[in-house]
Each structure stands twice: as structure tokens, then as C-alpha cells.
Amino acid sequence: MTVINSRLKALAVAGAGALLVPIGLTAAAPAAQAGSAAEPFGPACSSLPTSGEGSASGMADDPVATAASNNPELSTLVSAVQKAGLADTLNNAENITVFAPTNDAFEKIPKADLDKILNDEAQLKSLLNYHVVGEKVTVDQLPDGTFKTLQGGEITTSGSGQNFTVNDSAKIVCGDLETENATVQLVDTVLMPTS
């Protein structure tokens, strides 16, 4: 009883506003923070708007297709997603990752080839689904990752720090952008499925 009274007196001295947290919960607090989203990384993150719906913080408020539509770096991808009728599917999916080709990535494809893909609904859906993984993939999984895509194929990631490559060809230029339902990794090259 003396020990308990001594502890109560010590708490009273600490002040009436002192926060009482059970010792078991204080040890768990850092672990809870460890699972929080990573900060966006990569050289192209600086080209995103600093405020508004197209900014990193603005994208977090919307589902992925809507968030992408507000990002000026993704207008070609958004047009392709709308043409393929996949916007609602992406917006309603949960815990996915989109390896999102930037406008510059699409410009690397010869116009005739890109037009052919855009006008073939089955090929376009296959291509777009190849850029989507059915789980959240963040920077800690990128150094040596293999992920199954919604198209059925696999993509691989490698690298370290802030320098990551997808399928040994595309670079992640701005990674770990969070949306309401997805993680977005902006890539500088359109990923081509092998199957």
C-alpha cells in the first residue's frame, strides 16, 4: 500500500494534466508508427504541385483514378484508363499499387504503336492491368521485389535508397504517393507485359 501511495503522490506532483499511459502501451506506440505510410521519394516529386488536388497531400484524399486525374503528370494514363473503362474498377479496389507511367513514359512509345494499343480495348486493358499490383507496395519492399499484377504477369523491382528500377527498364521517378485506396509509384517507362 505504501508503494501505491508513493506512486500516486508522484503522479500528483507531475500535475493534474499529466497523461497516464499504461507501460505496455508505451512500448507498442513506436511499432504503430512504423506501419504508417512512407514519405514520397524521387526526383519527379518536386515537379508535383505543392498544393491542391494534384499535390501529394491532395492525392491522399481521393481514390486512385480520381487522384491521378488531378495530377498533371498522369493525363495520358488517365485518358487510357477512361478509354478502357477501368476508372471505377481502380477507384473501388482496396490496397492496390499502381506503377503509373508518366506522360513522358507514354511519349517514348512511337505514336503509331501507342494509337494501336489505345484502339484495341483488350490489349489496352491488359497493358493497364499489368501496371497494377493487388497489394500495397512501398519503398521497403522495392529493393528486391517480385509482384503479381492484375493482368496475371509479374513485375520485379530492384534498387536502394531512392533509386529503384522496375523490370530492369523503368525507373521510379516519384514513389510512395498515397491515395485513399492505393500506393502510386510513378515510372518513366510504360511496362510491357511478356504474356
Approximately how much helix is present in the residues? 25-40%
Alpha-beta classification: alpha+beta
Radius of gyration: 22 Å
Strand content: 15-25%
User: What is the third-level CATH name, the topology?
Assistant: FAS1 domain
CATH architecture: Roll
Give the strand order of the largest sheet, numbering strands 1, 2, ... along the chain: 2-1-7-6-5-4-3
Count all strands and give the number: 7
Structural shape: globular
CATH superfamily: FAS1 domain
Low-pLDDT windows of residues: 1-36
Query: What is the assembly state of the chains in this entry?
Result: single chain
Number of helical elements: 9
- CATH level 1 name: Mainly Beta
Chain-averaged pLDDT? 83
SSE string: HHHHHHEHHHEEEEEE
Largest sheet: 7 strands, mixed
What is the first-to-last residue Cα distance? 73 Å
Number of domains: 1
Structure description:
This protein has one domain (50-187): FAS1 domain. Helices cover 38% and strands 20% of the residues. It is built from nine helices and seven strands; from the N terminus they run ααααααβαααββββββ. Strands 2-1-7-6-5-4-3 form a seven-stranded mixed sheet. It is globular, with a radius of gyration of 22 Å. Mean pLDDT is 83; it is low at 1-36.
Concise overview:
The chain has helices at 2-14, 23-34, 56-59, 64-69, 75-84, 87-92, 103-107, 111-118, 121-130, and strands at 96-101, 132-133, 144-148, 154-160, 163-166, 170-178, 182-187. The chain is an alpha+beta fold.
